[in-house]
């Protein structure tokens, strides 16, 4: 997903044109920008602010307030592990520790090869089949450490195909 | 042609429903069978998911939990005619887990094709809206009031009073907003309803709009629910295509428009004023009340803010009447509540019952006890801000007032079960940690208090000077309860205080490290 600065600006302008006349559009714009690039490129903040008649501080404030928005590119695969009570009640903490060890990174970090990002999530609404994990947007329930290894292996197999 | 129901609910997907669906298609093709697959919502018995149903001459027959590898054998056993197989459960409606339930809000979830308007209408859909269109707005509001419906998001405020406040504001732009930011751990009824019967929410919001004179609705949906977003997007498009939304709702000449706005992973945005800030495109910092959102809400205009289940129950109340709904329940808790059994529970899932059954019935008759087989030591009710309830109080009825009387709260109806291996001091610490992570930062008791609470609990967990630290913790909790601007800082102490009260041995008698 390598785009030139000019392409990036073009895409952000296109998104702004689509949303800027709607009421309260900033979150919509940020979702669309993150949808296009995988993150909110810091260079786009100025353009978004200018087009929405906001200050850069306001836009930055919103990007940094919400856990979902990221200012750096994610890894090829995003692993979200639920850390909330329901998952804790059935081994969620052990699963989280296993994920950290297996990937060699802490939460909010990506592996040095850029293959995986590890994210905490506070409830996926899959609490009747805890512990729960979301891998690249796909939900998985009753995940054991062994099952997580298998899922990560499968994902890595797919991403390794073109390497 | 045979019909097979394979849930498209994300909980079922998490347990392999998509793989089962693929296996059914390929096996049916190999056997040259004409099979129609419907991706319904989940019936809510997650311990049996993927729960696959076949439409037979005797009604719907359930098999579960089915894995992709079971599919060839199921065809071999003649499951399209309800053939015997080790996974055969029998007629779905007659399974004891479902038979005792009173499904009102969830009357269609798991039964219908979620985005099919025709299926929705064939199962009682849009009769409520038709009724509402024949009534004057004040009568619609009055019917909701008489039904006794209270906000299902957690605060349990009477819905009719909220609607009347918005109705009584001078004419002009008003809004109906739906809070679908279901962030409490142990809750998933909003997600299930949106994935399984989104048109009931859409119909409920339309009725609300007509009742209070609002022409625009917004559904604030959390970003953690991408599957719900897809289903809801499709359902809204279907409702527009059939003129149930737009400029001429059901040929009435009245307008109601509806759109989804996605949240971005902030628990605080489940608080209504924070949600309004977020809908306006800002940081989700809470507003000082008054003014109430019903008077000055979204973009400064009178606004209804209701939870998904509250709004989705409105069509049934219009269709069946206020007395029908109020006929369920006990005391001031009228109607039914979709309860959610989660955590360390053998038979987890959604149980909708009239208010008044006991926690014990829920945990043991429906839930079957803990998943681990060990004794249940505690349950947390009402999400991360809800109190921990010990086993000695499991005979308490599920009712807003009865739970408040023991210092707990029902909230959104989620119950997280813990067995006797739980360390309650660590759960208390987590409550403070969660508050620190999710605090919007606007008020000091919440922003700073939660971090201080975490530090005190760390010292207690390390076994350092329990007595003095517990006193400090108590004072801090009191300050947060009294001094915070909203329920996050104001209620985060509840799980902490209840854990200390009921499980003091986990705090005071720790070995020093």
Fold and architecture overview:
The complex is a heterodimer of chains A (163) and B (513). Chain A is of the alpha+beta class and 163 residues long. Chain A has two domains: 5-65; 77-160, 3-Layer(aba) Sandwich (Glutaredoxin), CATH 3.40.30. Chain A has seven helices and five strands. Chain A has helices at residues 5-19, 26-37, 44-52, 56-65, 85-88, 92-103, 145-160, and strands at 77-82, 109-110, 116-121, 133-135, 138-140. A five-stranded mixed sheet of chain A has the order 2-3-1-4-5, with helices on one face. The radius of gyration of chain A is 18 Å and the shape is elongated. The two termini of chain A are 15 Å apart. The mean pLDDT of chain A is 94. Chain B is of the alpha/beta class. Chain B has four domains: 2-95, Glutaredoxin, CATH 3.40.30.10; 117-326, 3-Layer(aba) Sandwich (Rossmann fold), CATH 3.40.50.11540; 329-419, Ubiquitin-like (UB roll) (Roll); 424-508, de novo design (two linked rop proteins) (Up-down Bundle), CATH 1.20.1440.230. Chain B has helices at 10-13, 17-30, 71-76, 96-99, 117-122, 127-133, 137-147, 159-167, 189-196, 198-212, 226-241, 272-279, 308-320, 322-326, 359-366, 400-405, 424-438, 444-461, 466-483, 487-491, 493-502, 505-508; strands at residues 2-5, 35-38, 52-56, 59-63, 88-91, 175-180, 216-221, 257-262, 303-307, 329-330, 333-334, 336-343, 349-354, 376-381, 388-390, 414-419. In chain B, strands 2-1-3-4-5 form a five-stranded mixed sheet, covered by helices on one side. In chain B, β12 and β13 form a beta hairpin. In chain B, α10 crosses α13 (308-320) and α17 (424-438) packs antiparallel against α18 (444-461). The relative contact order of chain B is 0.10. The model of chain B has no long low-confidence stretch (mean pLDDT 97). At the A-B interface, α2, α4, α5 and β5 of A face α1, β12, β16 and α17 of B.
